[in-house]
Amino acid sequence: MRKQFRDLASPEAARETIASLELTPDTEMVALSDARGRILAERIDAEMDVPGFDRASMDGYAVRARDTFGADEADPLELELVGEVHAGTEPDVEVEPGTAAEISTGAVMPPGANAVVIVERTEERDGNLVVYKAVAPGDSVMPAGTDIAAGARALGPGTRITPREIGLLSALGLDEVPVRGAPVVGIVSTGDELVRPGEDLRPEAGQIYDVNSYTIAAGVEEAGGVPKLYPHAGDDYDEMERLLHEAAAECDLVLSSGSTSASAVDVIYQVVEERGELLLHGVAVKPGKPMLVGTLGERSAYIGLPGYPVSALTIFRTFVAPAIRDAAGLPEPQTATIEGSMAVRERYAEGRTRLMPVGLVTDGSGETLVYPVDKGSGATTSLVEADGVVEVHADVEYLAEGETVTVTLFSPDVRPPELLGVGEDDPALSRLLDHAPSPRYLAVGSREGLRRLRDGVPDVAVVAGDSRSDVDAVELGSWTREWGLVVPADNPADVAGLGDLVDSDLRFVNRDTNSGLRTELGTAVAALAEERGETRHELVEGIVGFDSGLKAFESPARAVLSGRADVGLGLRETADALGLGFVTLGEQPVRVVANPDRTEKQSVRRLRELLADSDDVFESLSGYESE
Amino acid sequence: MRKQFRDLASPEAARETIASLELTPDTEMVALSDARGRILAERIDAEMDVPGFDRASMDGYAVRARDTFGADEADPLELELVGEVHAGTEPDVEVEPGTAAEISTGAVMPPGANAVVIVERTEERDGNLVVYKAVAPGDSVMPAGTDIAAGARALGPGTRITPREIGLLSALGLDEVPVRGAPVVGIVSTGDELVRPGEDLRPEAGQIYDVNSYTIAAGVEEAGGVPKLYPHAGDDYDEMERLLHEAAAECDLVLSSGSTSASAVDVIYQVVEERGELLLHGVAVKPGKPMLVGTLGERSAYIGLPGYPVSALTIFRTFVAPAIRDAAGLPEPQTATIEGSMAVRERYAEGRTRLMPVGLVTDGSGETLVYPVDKGSGATTSLVEADGVVEVHADVEYLAEGETVTVTLFSPDVRPPELLGVGEDDPALSRLLDHAPSPRYLAVGSREGLRRLRDGVPDVAVVAGDSRSDVDAVELGSWTREWGLVVPADNPADVAGLGDLVDSDLRFVNRDTNSGLRTELGTAVAALAEERGETRHELVEGIVGFDSGLKAFESPARAVLSGRADVGLGLRETADALGLGFVTLGEQPVRVVANPDRTEKQSVRRLRELLADSDDVFESLSGYESE
């Protein structure tokens, strides 16, 4: 039943197909106060003169110019003062020959008068005006329409409305203006397991929060569209069909992001085929291969996005956002792309265009370095590790280190982090980073952190424990933290040390092998083995769960808190913070070390200062000491 | 009573004083859907694991890894199929030794199982599962917390929220987030003569629409503040005082823009002195000398802006917007400044910093040229002629032609026009420009247009009439238009030609001397004089109002329409459009000529195409013909 699309479309064909969709919405009227950032839909001609009257442009006296002929300092003239005219009032006086009327800046020239003598060249004496200077017709008078004349072209169609255009429109008295309509973009979520943020989540039933709908909605808004989220239909396919029809009727474009359920995809297919036309299925790009493009009903277009968050945002940014911007009449912001050079060599040979998510970092000389992230992991965290996308064409086999590439940022508002750190997960570090200027920290563990520092991408690595390594690095500062075994609040199993863990059946939760805390535990186990005359392997075998490995410093403690484990590897600080018991096994140093080429980078210098000046942070945490 | 501020403050001192004002608003909670563009006020740590359960990452079968030991293509194993688990549902099956459960991507791993065999490596046979591949514990399983672990640092304070951050926040289930509050900025308008756009205007009473309030409100919004417009108090000073108190209580900052009334300024002075502190009065900048900075009440700051629209926006952009952005935590957008080179030499020697409004244009080689506009005219139209401001320091005597300057744009959204045209005002031209890409056209008249073209700033000039000139220019296209005398609909005075105007007392309205239409009229008068054997001067003396000069092509006709004049100089098209009578005096050519260095500029080529291809525009207008 499905149409056959044997060949994947090229990215260029996909762009053309999407550009051919009719998204352009009707012109709409918006209030002047909401017009900023919109695009004027029509030419605005002035319907009135500005000013609408002959206006005094100085404080002084309205006169007939002819009456002042010959007046000068040596030989002043006298005129009879017949009244005054203030700004914002209608003159109730006429200037007959031989008379003058006091007038303030902005006031209407009274009948008869054709010039203003500025106040500095006059004197009032006995109710008369003494004039010390002759004026010509029109002196200090701004005739009606001087600023904007009725009938004149004021602003053209396609003009982006910024504060200054708001000013001109106000001058014309307009309180609403015709602007390009913003395309309405429906977002349909199709996963049975998805729950809206803010609602209760049942993880035991496999529920997760809906990430793509909100990310894409924000992207739609940023591109000048109006996002409309539809409630999700769960596994009710009739309801899903109904929602798609509803969205097709209400929106200029409908987006959905990849469902894990093949049946859901079938429903979408069927609706697109029955109510519109499937234009394209499958594009030769990675990610995004299964991308679907079609029409839906009379007036709507449909684009199906991949399911992984970074992939969905990548495809949205590359193919969909430009179409929304076009429909809204908005230019691509200048800050939407950035040039940089590859920090590492990256091979690629899949024969289709790769949209490579990348992170950015600035090197010591201020150059932007680009490095690949998220190789298809699907992790949500990659969303904030990746700054944008590099499009690598199908015939490119590799990108050399140092090669210049263009990065399309995920948002024109994305700025590269000022500091890129990698390494151990630590609560004191997390607090320090609150004061660092725009940091990005990837908690990949001490071992992986050092490896990455050696590869030259990050500015700094954070290493816990005794880390003899051959990585060339400059120490910026250090502290110590107390580590050990986290147990329930009242320590029901009376764990007193590592030996108790080995000798019991207690369920233990370890950290991952990159963690400096796990390395420290391994060292302690080895020492205990030597003391007992056993092998390290024998001891490890006695610990139920030693091979488990959770990624974050609080995770084992949280497993204890929830009753999923009896003992967890962790920090005194964590145990205290969560109200759990703690059995100390020692102290370990945590060191912050920098790439030697980056020590003069401003953010690195700032981090060094922070480390030298943050005793209060360490004092506020249990088991911590600054060194 | 006023404090004496004998010396004007330096611009640096003004910046410091404004920076010292306490504008930073409290943290506020906003819905996730409104969070884009805001600045995170606090660190967000994950409160939960993502995913919150051990998750199958492929479609297949959940098994105990140990049970698959030794399985391969040649020697498959069989397991008993005991059920299935779908994404979004709680497993109702336990995987005992020797059994397997079907599982879909995203589903919860059932109790007992610790790995997934992907569907491609299995076969179902008689209700049993045939496994062709051994798996290790954890294969195709994403453990709880792999993506984000509870307790991990997710986002730091100061993070700008873009779509990707929205994604991470959704993953954490947050439907509202703490963001830096946006400073509330009150705008008080003080002119007696000001009327809000959309309301009725009484020009005869000297009323004009309020320009600054709306311009500044849009600027406040753009800088990340929340503008709050207060109704204006007219000339009721008690009411003005009351409004200032109200605004001081409700806002973080109160702005007003210069009133023409000295009394209004006095009221503001008094309120600032009584309820706060006057910190600064007068800054050594042009414009903006009388700028006022102070505190107002307990919590608000006050800044008084100049009255002319371009001056108000200049001072706002230079001194106030940075303070609002700081308070909102927003960085200065990268597009807020642009480099260019001076198109003309500009002298300046006033001994104080000049904030010079400038326009931008691109030359033939793509370089940005900068030229001064609005030398204190106060015209609202200057708002859309000026793109930004160049700060010229007090000790700079002149800027040389070609000198590089930095322009602070009036808005980060301002882009230089792609086409800069100057010259004659014409309705056909106005329609053509609707199709030109981002044009700016200054209707300065034919004569002034040619002068500016010679000076090298604009791309094109539009010249009406017989224009022998020594300006080196390339003609892009031309048309003719019928011109003559516009009279009331029924031509009550039976005007048949120029002679009737000379011989009558009819009130005539002319165009300005830069207009090609006026030059044409002058030529016709000279011809008539010769015919009659009189001097040109004698004929002109006979025309009541010959020396008047309105700026726009419709203005004289509108004067006739309103009864302010009996005859106006104009076009047949205008007379027809306004339903007036018309007495033809001839046809005149209108030519579009380009700067020879700009003919290859894309916008100029586009204009040439438009001229060649717009017969429909000329046909739709009365008395027009394309050439």
TrEMBL record, chains A, B:
SUPFAM superfamilies according to UniProt: MoeA C-terminal domain-like, MoeA N-terminal region -like, Molybdenum cofactor biosynthesis proteins, Periplasmic binding protein-like II
One Pfam family in the UniProt entry: PBP_like
Entry's Gene Ontology molecular function annotations: molybdopterin molybdotransferase activity
Keywords: Molybdenum cofactor biosynthesis
Family annotation (SMART domains): MoCF_biosynth (SM00852)
GO biological process: Mo-molybdopterin cofactor biosynthetic process
Domain of life from the UniProt record: Archaea
Name recorded for this polypeptide: Molybdopterin biosynthesis protein
Organism the protein comes from: Haloferax litoreum
